[in-house]
Amino acid sequence: MAFGSSTLCIFAVLLLTSSFTVAAAAASSSPGPSKSNGSNTDLAALLAFKAQLSDPENILAGNWTAGTLFCHWLGVLCSHRRQRVTALELPGVPLEGELSAHLGNLSFLSVLNLTNTGLTGSVPNDIGRLRRLELLDLGHNAMSGGIPTTIGNLTRLQLLNLQFNQLSGPIPAELQGLRSLRSIDLIRNYLTGSIPNSLFNNTPLLAYLNIGNNSLSGPIPGCVGSLQMLQTLVLQFNNLTGLVPPAIFNMSSLSGSFPGNTSFNLPVLRRFSISRNSFTGQIPLGLAACPYLQVLSMNDNTLEGAFPSWLGKLTNLNSISLAGNHLDAGPIPAALSNLTKLSIIELAMCNLTGAIPYMPKGSLEALLHSEERMQLGFLQRLDIMLDVSMAMEYLHHEHCEVVLHCDLKPSNVLFDDDMMAHVADFGIARLLLGDDNSMISASMPGTVGYMAPEYGALGKASRKSDVFSYGIMLLEVFTGKRPTDAMFVGELNIRRWVQHAFPAELVHVLDGQLIQDGSSSPSNMHGYLKPVFELGLLCSADSPEQRMAMRDVVVTLKKIRKDYIKSIATTAISAQQ
């Protein structure tokens, strides 16, 4: 799962749902706002808010009119008894302009959500007068200036989102007054200065803390290590220095050694990632006290010592990344066989020897092409590619940061005792920051035959370059042909070979082993070859824009599998009659 975003989104949805439920019921049953001074104040504040916005698509101009009661305006919710504005929510609506200080007069406001609305200018100090405010989301705009110290007055505030703006200056120490805070996201701004020592002394409910991608300096406050509800901590890409408090190592830009003690106090921690830093020392034993840990990412540091066998006790782990460290030479502990949920493991360049204990069935490469390869039926192949797609979906859409594998191929897919496929070897994997269309430059290319055209020729990697590799692998699994097979010369490659046979002649490119397999009769497979090969062709399209997203690949494969199993069951019932 994507612990940072999932935690934040779930919390926001719960909060907004309760607001919508109460306020919507009030709006539908009320006779309309009374002409009290409070209602007039709210109306004046909304009109002042509207007046400072250019509203380029005339959304407010066409809806916020004198002929409609303001409690029925788009994005406005009111309380039942007093007919006062309790929520102003216009996420994604192109407003464009500056926030009016008059918003501070909406004294009953509990939700202010103006994310991705084209706002500029500063955050008004008057926001600090909204004492009932529980959610403040101004993220994904172009707001500048500092974070108002008055926000510290909002003692009921549970969610503070100011991410992806142009805010500068320090994080105000006054924010320590946010005693109800559960989530704070300030990533991708230009904040400077140190993190106030007492900032989190009074926030016992904090579960999500993201202040990455700023220019913060100085030490990490020790109080962060006492946030017992903390599930997500992101401090990446800052200029933080000094001693590292125990248990505070998630994605910071710090360097130095791990503390020798074991006084971890983050019992519900689920993500622990310090990848691509300069940490030394051993893998901290204190992590053994984090039973809910799901992601352990410590690759590309200079960690030393033995590979810890106690990792085998963290049975919720689904991802381990330790590649590129200086661990002691020796075998990988057999205790890892206890980690039945593990789907991603990265141990390249770690001086470790032997096989991964819970991967006794070898690789997909051997399964497809070795002389003693086992018989793989249609459903088995479908399940293998579904396992791989789900692992890649996790990397692309659910991991704390988007991870590009950059070298997806059959030799990097390993099998456990139950023949469940696991994606391995992230030696050239890269982190991706940005939206779904973002790309990065990668200096280390993948494997010939599996590389997307834009990756092989230009070194540009994206989610869609991994999808291309997956598509080629899907075609390989069902044809039995490597993309580097000697038959593919000149303009002919595995994709064009399959495309020439699609859809009427697919039986001619199908792996001969499948045709001979008694468990996969041609009659059962016939209606499902087309969607499988069509999926492979879509994923391996030359243009990245034409390729599917990995989450859509998972949905498609699950549907094919469900329909295929239903077809087999129907055929079996008919044969018995």
Automatic annotation (TrEMBL):
Leader peptide range in chain numbering: 1-25
GO cellular component term, pick one: plasma membrane
Localization in the cell: Cell membrane; Membrane
Keywords: ATP-binding, Cell membrane, Glycoprotein, Kinase, Leucine-rich repeat, Membrane, Nucleotide-binding, Phosphoprotein, Receptor, Repeat, Serine/threonine-protein kinase, Signal, Transferase, Transmembrane, Transmembrane helix
UniProt GO molecular function: ATP binding; protein serine/threonine kinase activity
Main location: membrane
One Pfam family this sequence matches: LRR_1
Entry-linked InterPro entries: Kinase-like_dom_sf, Leu-rich_rpt, Leu-rich_rpt_typical-subtyp, LRR_dom_sf, LRR_N_plant-typ, LRR_R13L4/SHOC2-like, Plant_LRR-RLKs, Prot_kinase_dom
Protein name: non-specific serine/threonine protein kinase
Highest taxon above the source species: Eukaryota
This enzyme's EC code(s): 2.7.11.1
Tagged with keyword Phosphoprotein: yes
UniProt cross-references to PANTHER family, sorted A to Z: LRR RECEPTOR-LIKE SERINE/THREONINE-PROTEIN KINASE-RELATED (PTHR48056), RECEPTOR PROTEIN-TYROSINE KINASE CEPR1 (PTHR48056:SF81)
UniProt membrane topology term: Single-pass membrane protein; Single-pass type I membrane protein
UniProt cross-references to SUPFAM superfamilies, sorted A to Z: L domain-like, Protein kinase-like (PK-like)
Domain Protein kinase: 249-533
Family recorded in the similarity comment: Belongs to the protein kinase superfamily. Ser/Thr protein kinase family.
UniProt enzyme class: transferase
Catalytic reactions on record: L-threonyl-[protein] + ATP = O-phospho-L-threonyl-[protein] + ADP + H(+); L-seryl-[protein] + ATP = O-phospho-L-seryl-[protein] + ADP + H(+)
